[in-house]
Amino acid sequence: DGSPPSAAASAPDLPGYAHLYSGKVRDLYAPLDDAGHPRTDRLLLVASDRISAFDFVLETPVPDKGEVLTRMSLWWFEQLADLVPNHVVSTDVPDAVRGRAVLVRRLDMLPVECVARAYLTGGGLREYRADGTVSGIALPDGLTDGSRLPEPLFTPSTKAPSGQHDEPMSYAQVEAAVGPDLAARARDLTTRILVRGNELAAERGIIIADTKVEFGVVDGGLVLADEVLTPDSSRFWPAEEWEPGHPQPSVDKEFVREWLLSPASGWDKASGEAPPPLPDDVIERTRAKYVEAYERLTGRSFTARGAA
Ligand code: ATP
Ligand code: MG
Q1: Any idea where the SAICAR synthetase/ADE2 N-terminal domain is (predicted)?
Q2: Which of 26, 55, 108 to mutate to test the pocket of ligand 1 (most atoms within 8 A of CB)?
Q3: Which listed ligand is nearest to 27 at the C-alpha?
């Protein structure tokens, strides 16, 4: 289905920047150089307030979501700085996107979505039920939806073009794609990021069940890019409600999913049609969830900095 027309249409016009691409949630720009040409060494990543559920970008944005997630990523980059260098150059960005945009080094990206799982659910659970393995790694019997894994696993997938689904990759495929050395480093860093993330999140009552990170390559070394340990790239579960044996509530999209699946929405998930707009109270409660996750994790209070 490609990038949704509404996404590109809502990408703001930024003087001094060339719009390159709009994904489901983010708009990418290249800053213009003195001659007015797009720079090839920098990117402006702008997180919109768009929210997706069940693989649809919903019509209704969640106010401040882009800013909350941008600030959460920046906080994590700092927490992880001794583990891995990152792509951040500056948060000095145009007023129109202040708070939700970051200027970054434009990197050659590894062609791999680096996923790590600390708990079993989603695609990992499906593979385990079929074959007793996750990403080809044999696991003990008796695990269920939400079980904590004996150790965090690297479960990479392809970077599918926008609108297509990522496919699982075996570790051997990652080695073939990037070489054994970078593959080993990506695997090691991805699982360490999740372990470190969970050490910090545990103190704040949040479980990070799994996460996806992306790396760029600079001088043969890996640099953490994209976003990191946000509810958009990870499954955040409220720790006090964790109970293996059934799907866990998510910290951020619980109300959205619940409402969409309820009779009140009038939406039939099986129809393949786009979901209806969200009612105001669902939006407001969802916004509050994102803010709460940010505040709990970072211990900072959230006041929107950006232009309304
Ligand atoms: P969609 O979410 O629609 O499936 P997407 O994941 O490509 O598509 P976004 O997450 O909105 O969309 O866009 C971020 C894009 O920017 C990703 O393709 C990511 O690989 C790329 N990216 C992130 N950081 C960097 C960087 N430092 N250098 C180059 N590319 C980057
Ligand atoms: Mg992405």
Answers
A1: 19-271
A2: 26
A3: 1
